[in-house]
Amino acid sequence: ALDSQYGMYVWPCAVVLAQYLWAHRRSLPGRRVLEIGAGVSLPGVVAARCGAQVILSDSEELPQCLQSCRSSCLMNRLPHVPVLGLTWGRVSPELLSLAPIDVILGSDVFFDPKDFEDILMTIYFLLEKNPQAQFWTTYQVRSADWSIEALLYKWNLKSIHVPLHSFGADKEHLASSSMPGRHTIEMMIISLAQSEGT
């Protein structure tokens, strides 16, 4: 039982998203990246080490997760990466004052169905402010009924599926980690349904 502190572990989805970032590392220098629900921040740390300008965030209601983000930055010699408390579904001063972003990262944020709409509302808000940005997300298939299609439509968002084999993540072991294991992990890129240039 993991209690409410989901963000205190490296989950299989984080390893897969980190692999995607590594596969696209040449496109990262100078890109402005926000990781939501960052927890131990593996994808954000990889993006920062590859030259992206990264901001890490987790719920302002989970100070242990925010501290975990800070600790990951210090352990990876990234002391200047900002860590923000951003709670999904809440339009806070921190959310309103965010600098422009190019990519939003989220690994295994679609965990609890009661959070799905709050997550997508937050993503929609960020994409409206940054119409060319994309949300790169990995999730573990835990239920056959799991679907965000209706919510994507409601929030004027679209998704494309990214096959794991396209970036070498269709294996049980990645980057010396057995973490992905036999879990069914998927990746998608979410963007505004009607934005120019996509």
TrEMBL record:
Describe the family membership recorded for this protein in Swiss-Prot or TrEMBL.
Belongs to the methyltransferase superfamily. METTL23 family.
Provide the species name.
Tychaedon coryphoeus
**Pfam families, alphabetically?**
Methyltransf_16
Q: Where is the signal peptide?
A: none
Task: Kindly state the subunit structure of this protein.
Answer: Interacts with HSPA5, HSP90B1, TUBULIN, UGGT1 and UGGT2. Interacts with TET3. Interacts with STPG4.
As for what it does, the entry says: Histone methyltransferase that dimethylates histone H3 at 'Arg-17', forming asymmetric dimethylarginine (H3R17me2a), leading to activate transcription via chromatin remodeling. Maternal factor involved in epigenetic chromatin reprogramming of the paternal genome in the zygote: mediates H3R17me2a, promoting histone H3.3 incorporation in the male pronucleus, leading to TET3 recruitment and subsequent DNA demethylation.
Where does the source fall among the domains of life? Eukaryota
> For this protein, what reaction is catalysed?
L-arginyl-[protein] + 2 S-adenosyl-L-methionine = N(omega),N(omega)-dimethyl-L-arginyl-[protein] + 2 S-adenosyl-L-homocysteine + 2 H(+)
Which named protein is this? Histone-arginine methyltransferase METTL23
List this protein's GO terms for biological process.
Answer: chromatin organization; methylation; regulation of gene expression
